[in-house]
């Protein structure tokens, strides 16, 4: 009887232990998602969306800046919003809910309003506020260039990639 119990229980215990190990490993959060990702302009070599001066206050401008991988250049996509990896729970925002072409992009306390809703469509980022695209103002691909909300036109100033 004792031998029967060992023959039945040992493989079962081993199997359960293995399942536990697999579950623990697969439940580990992905560093890429937890730490955020960079959003790079396809129109310029190595320029990223950047919260200017790593400002954690409301209204901080978002510009293009040489990619460094720092927290002010990392973004976390959650609930159709792009939250900055900087402390303070700030999200990519169309300033003051402005629906016109050229509206500035900044960061602001995260909320569920349309100025902070974004979706990826191919290589563009489309605003939930008005269906316009995240754009490099006047295709000025230089450090510190302004990023705005502008009617989608398929231009290189509206082309982005994540890394």
Notes on the structure:
With 163 residues, this protein is of the alpha+beta class. It folds into two domains: 1-34; 36-162, Trefoil (Acidic Fibroblast Growth Factor, subunit A). The protein is 19% helix and 33% strand. The protein has two helices and twelve strands. The strands form four sheets. Strands 2, 3, 6, 7, 10 and 11 form a six-stranded antiparallel beta sheet that branches. A two-stranded antiparallel ribbon has the order 1-12. Strand 6 (90-94) and strand 7 form a beta hairpin. Residues 35-163 form the Ricin B lectin domain. One of its GO terms (molecular function) is carbohydrate binding.
Q: What is the CATH fold-level name of the largest domain?
A: Trefoil (Acidic Fibroblast Growth Factor, subunit A)
Q: Taking all residues together, what is the mean pLDDT?
A: 84
Let me know the largest β-sheet. Answer: 6 strands, antiparallel
SS elements, strand count? 12
Instruction: Please work out how many helical segments DSSP would assign.
Output: 2
How does the helix and strand content classify structurally? alpha+beta
Assign the CATH architecture of the largest domain. Trefoil
The rounded distance between the terminal residues' Cα atoms is 59 Å
Domain Ricin B lectin: 35-163
Keywords: Lectin, Signal
Pfam families: Ricin_B_lectin
Signal peptide: 1-24
């Amino acid at each position: 009887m004792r031998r029967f119990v060992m023959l039945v229980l040992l493989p079962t215990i081993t199997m359960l232990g293995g399942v536990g190990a697999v579950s623990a490993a697969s439940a580990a959060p992905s560093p890429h998602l937890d730490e955020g990702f960079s959003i790079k302009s396809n129109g310029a070599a190595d320029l990223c969306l950047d919260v200017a001066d790593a400002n954690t206050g409301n209204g901080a401008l978002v510009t293009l800046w040489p990619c460094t991988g720092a927290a002010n250049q990392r973004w976390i996509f959650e609930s159709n919003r792009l939250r900055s990896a900087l402390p303070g729970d700030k999200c990519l925002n169309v300033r003051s809910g402005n629906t016109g072409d050229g509206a500035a992009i900044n960061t602001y306390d995260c909320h569920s309003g349309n100025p902070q809703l974004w979706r990826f469509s191919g290589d563009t980022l489309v605003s939930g506020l008005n269906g316009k695209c995240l754009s490099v103002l006047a295709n000025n691909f230089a450090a510190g260039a302004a990023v705005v909300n502008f009617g989608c036109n398929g231009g290189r100033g509206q082309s982005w990639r994540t890394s």
